[in-house]
Specification:
GTPase activator activity, Rab_GAP_TBC_domain, Rab-GAP-TBC_dom, mainly alpha, small GTPase binding, globular, Rab-GAP_TBC_sf, Helicase, Ruva Protein, domain 3
Length: 190
């Protein structure tokens, strides 16, 4: 189900990419992030807000293009880098899947649970290319796939990964994760 929806999304993405490339080339616009509007209440809870989608530094378009370079070429290069990173993430998922609950019958090579988990992870790496796939995500996705269909597991994974704790944990940001973990452990042992 997720792969079918992903095929539809890929077709729409290709049409969108072509439209963007077509519209950007004549106007020579630079892709710039839109500023986020916050009120005072939002500033107090920035650490609790779900992480925003950000491209990794090596994938961003740095500064305005020079007069002799084409924005369409920059956009095409960015798209090519995103595709290469996504292919790398898919290979990591394929390599990690046999180790995910390898003794469980539903997660044997080619079994339904393994296929559903792979679909969810593939969809998530396409959904959040800034994070991609990190070793250990397969266990989270597999547990969700035990209890939900592919699309439900994907939605649940997106929701869980939108929490600051899990997102920072998979980004390997120890300085942000440790205070939260220490607080939770102290609450449980209190």
């Amino acid at each position: 189900a997720v792969l079918l929806e992903m095929d539809l999304v890929k077709e729409a993405d290709e049409k969108s990419r072509q439209l963007v490339l077509h519209k950007l080339a004549p106007h020579q616009h630079v892709l710039e992030p839109q500023p986020q509007l916050h009120n005072e209440r939002d500033h107090a809870h920035d650490d609790d807000a779900p992480p925003l989608l950000q491209l990794p530094a090596h994938l961003s378009i740095a500064g305005p293009p020079s007069r002799d370079s084409s924005t369409a070429l920059d956009a095409q290069a960015l798209a090519d880098k995103l595709i290469a990173d996504n292919e790398r993430n898919i290979k990591l998922v394929q390599r990690d899947m046999p180790r995910t609950f390898g003794n469980h019958p539903l997660f044997q090579d080619g079994a339904a649970g393994a296929q559903k988990t792979y679909e969810v992870l593939e969809a998530y790496t396409c959904y959040r290319p800034d994070l991609g796939y990190v070793q250990g995500m397969s266990y989270l996705a597999a547990i969700l796939c035990l209890h939900l269909d592919s699309f439900g597991a994907f939605r649940a994974m997106v929701s869980l990964m939108s929490t600051r704790l899990l997102f920072d944990m998979y980004r390997l940001e120890e300085e942000r994760v440790m205070p939260s973990l220490v607080l939770r452990v102290s609450l449980v042992t209190w």
